[in-house]
Amino acid sequence: MTVDQASSATPQFVPVGDNDARVFALDARTRACRLAAKAGLDCAGEARIGQAAVLADMGFAWDPAWLKAIAGRPATVLTLGDRVVLAHVAPHQDPGPLAAAMAGGSPPPLAGFERLDAETAELSYHELRKRDRPFVMPLAPANARQVEKAAYDASYKGVTDALTLYLWRGIAFHLTRWAAQARLTPNQITLVGAALCVATFFLFLRGEYWWGMATGFGFMVLDTVDGKLARCTGQSSWWGNIFDHGIDLVHPPFWWWAWAEGLAFHDDPFETVYEYLIVGAIVAGYVAQRVIEGIFMRRYGMHIHVWQRIDSRFRLITARRNPNMVILLGSLIFNRPDMGLELVALWTMVSLIFHAVRLAQANARRDRGATLASWLA
């Protein structure tokens, strides 16, 4: 069944029970309250009749998407087997029996509540560009690592590039766990990544491409870790989001220009005019693709990459930083860094044409009166 995340009056969030298990170095109650704060809910010590509340059994771990869904559905409970995991108690309902059943680990009375089964319900993750069945798991010290892995996987975007989705997913998980245990913040991870990003620029500029690849890929991995750490520990912030995405948006053209300049330290530097053409094509194509994505989002309320399955598949390899770095790495293996940048320019143009055609096709469908929807919806 499909759950619509409807909006309603904001309830309080009330953790029920205690749990010694630590997930990403946080006790169950602290982590749950952080996730609730990110969902716009205030954490309270107890629920009272006459005040809407979301009760959460601390014996379970759950995807934050469930919290948002339940918070928008008064008089609804999320169950796993015969246990209630989350419950939205409306102002006219008595939270006492539910809270007592949660604390005692017994099946509660559900008269007057709509029931959602965690084993069959699905949600559409608009922010993470995927459709999935969010996880719900019993939480105990013995399975804390399994819960961490489930929470980490749940924080992953369903539509992104192939390297992020497949290559360093496992590495980033271990780094995320280590960062949480070391009490590092997402912004600190982003800052380290920014330093590696700047180092990559100067290494490329000096033609030290292999060292630049090392720092560049280090930055790319940390670019995954900071976001996952923020989501898994409830530490994401407006400034952190601007800091992280600002770096992501701005730095790629500087890398490609530095790569072109670095060719002067090798056997086949570009002629000045040709360098301007190659770098100009990459930068102009990159900017144009971003503009197309913005137009699509504004017109249709969704990312162009989630319109149809082909768009999501093409996102795996489209001319963004990570796939471009794979092309450049291949050129280094064959000792042709000049050809690598030429191939990046070519692939950028191919990707730009693909996205321009997809925007035109979407506009044509809209003009015929069709309503566009994501294949993930």
Return residue spans where pLDDT drops below 50 for at least 5 consecutive residues. Answer: 1-8
Instruction: Outline the biggest β-sheet.
Output: 5 strands, mixed
Helicity, as a percent range: 55-70%
Number of helices: 13
Task: Evaluate the radius of gyration.
Answer: 24 Å
| Strand neighbour order, sheet with most strands | 1-4-7-6-8
Q: Could you state the order of secondary-structure elements as H and E?
A: EEEHEEHEEHEEEEHHHHHHHHHH
What share of residues are in beta strands?
5-15%
**Mean of residue pLDDT values:** 91
Shape: elongated
Output the structural class: alpha+beta
How many individual β-strands? 11
- Distance from N terminus to C terminus (CA atoms, Å) equals 13 Å
Topology of helices and strands:
Blueprint: E1 12-16, E2 22-23, E3 26-27, H1 28-38, E4 53-57, E5 60-62, H2 64-71, E6 76-80, E7 83-89, H3 96-104, E8 114-117, E9 123-125, E10 130-132, E11 136-138, H4 144-154, H5 162-167, H6 169-181, H7 186-205, H8 209-233, H9 238-262, H10 272-300, H11 309-315, H12 321-333, H13 337-367
Parallel strand pairs: 1-4, 6-8
Antiparallel strand pairs: 2-3, 4-7, 5-11, 6-7, 9-10
Helix pairs in contact: 6-8, 7-8, 7-9, 8-9, 8-12, 9-10, 10-13, 12-13
